[in-house]
Amino acid sequence: MSALPITTSRREIIKLGAMSASFASGLRLFSHTASSTLLDTFQGLKVGLTSYSTRKFSLDETLRMVKRLALRYISLKDFHLPLKSTSEERRAAAQKIKQAGLQLLGCGVVTMKNDEAEIRQAFDYAQDAGIATIVASPDPAALGLLDRLVKDYNIRIAIHNHGPEDKHYPTPDSVAEAVKDYDRRIGLCIDIGHTMRAGVKPEEAIRKHAGRLYELHLKDVDKAAAEGRNIELGRGVIDIPAVLRALLEIKYPYHVALEYEKDADDPLPGMAESIGYLRGVLAMM
To answer: Mutual orientation of helices 87-99 and 116-129 as an angle, nearest 10°?
Structure first.
């Protein structure tokens, strides 16, 4: 897999990404028999959105944004489906997502105390909505309980690393060390922004922990330091092409979710720029 030409500008990459998306959309409209390979602008990666990105908007507004971005996958934050919702409300939300032509892959981040009733509520929530992966930040004392519940429910737990401020799970390595003796359905959600802020190259963490990596949060940051802040993909210090190469090399089968924390009142332009950059990079690989 070749590297990107060093003379390629960011504007050219985004333009190529937009052309790629437009071509795929045109094929969908033109022919019902067009091959999935031609329609896939992400080279098989399940690129979608974590709805924390649209935390100030309703579920209906969020689904419209995901469709405008020409994405097919979503993970829900409890802004859009509360953890204390009823079974009927969860099934209705899942049906609404399906009717929008999208696939619900995950939920979270769910904070988990060492409390069986509270943790079971999260598993029931995922089960009712048809969610296969709960992205979580559990109390380390709860890992034994999680070990039992992932077997009971056959639902994965992906523990999210939150960078230097996280006293339990600052890096992917810290998550891997914590879960190594438990059921393999307990694994990682690598947040590449927080990983970079903790001084770890995300592409190296992806390769190292591929076997238990069940969701990936895609973002960029302006500094490889604790004070680094979220920024549009390709504008920061993360080597996004290297991250994508790592995901393609391991044939990553789970959700690659854009988590755009910037511009909470108007996230769509920045999300569109980020997805356009992503498409452009992949088109050049």
So the answer is: 40
Q: What is the pTM of this model?
A: 0.89
Beta bridge partner(s), residue 231: 220
DSSP string computed for 147-184: HHHHHHH--EEEEEP--TT-SS-SSHHHHHHHHTTS-T
Cα–Cα nearest to 76, from 248, 92, 42, 68: 92
pLDDT digits over 191-247, tens only?
A: 999 999 999 999 999 999 999 999 999 999 999 999 999 999 999 999 999 999 999
Tell me how far apart the alpha carbons of residues 23 and 280 are, in angstroms, rounded to a whole number. 13
Peptide bond preceding 109: is omega within 30 degrees of 0, i.e. cis?
yes
**CA distances in angstroms from 120 to 8, 113, 157, listed in the order given:** 50, 11, 13
4 secondary structure, DSSP code: P
